Amino acid sequence: MDKKMTYEEAMNRLDEIIAVLEENKATLDESIKLYEEGVELAKFCDSKLKSIEDRVVKIYENGSMQTYEGDHNGTNDSGNQ
Q1: How many structural domains comprise the chain?
Q2: Rounded to 5 degrees, what angle do the CA atoms 44, 5, 53 make?
Q3: Which CA distances in Å does 39 have to 17, 20, 36, 42, 59?
Q4: Structural domain includes residue 41
Q5: Which helix (H) or strand (E) holds 42?
Q6: Which of 40, 57, 61, 72 is the most core-located residue (most Cβ within 10 A)?
Q7: What is the CB-side half-sphere exposure of residue 29 using CA atoms within 13 A?
Q8: How far is CA 4 from the centre of its chain?
Q9: Which helix (H) or strand (E) holds 20?
Q10: Has this prediction a pTM greater than 0.90?
Q11: What torsion do the CA atoms of 15, 19, 22, 26 make, to the nearest 10 degrees?
Q12: Residue 80: inside a domain, yes or no?
């Protein structure tokens, strides 16, 4: 598996593997190789999603902190500056 693969590319390849396996168009040996590739792709996709989730949480937390700090630095709407 190419480590520079995007999430979308990995998902597309995983869809292809699933289709081949569901159609029973592969030999047993080919099926095992495809299954192994599919497991690696699934791990890759899971890792990518976890990484994105962590980034989103950090972005959200940083945005919340800025709003919170702003409210205590005289930038709120209460008129108390």
Answers
A1: 1
A2: 50
A3: 10, 15, 5, 5, 30
A4: yes
A5: helix 28-71
A6: 40
A7: 0
A8: 14
A9: helix 7-22
A10: no
A11: -120
A12: no
d(CA 45, CA 43): 5
Output the CA angle 46-54-17, nearest 5 degrees: 15
Q: Which amino acid is at 17?
A: I
**pLDDT 10s digits, 19-73:** 999 999 899 999 999 999 999 999 999 999 999 999 999 999 888 766 555 555 5
CB-based contact 40:1 (threshold 8 Å): yes
Could you tell me if residue 2 is inside a domain? no
Range of the domain at 42: 7-71
How far apart, in whole angstroms, are the C-alpha atoms of residue 34 and residue 28? Answer: 10
| In contact, 26 and 34? CB cutoff 8 Å | yes
Query: Are the C-beta atoms of residues 70 and 76 closer than 8 Å to each other?
Result: yes
Q: Which residue has the tokens 């159609």?
A: 23
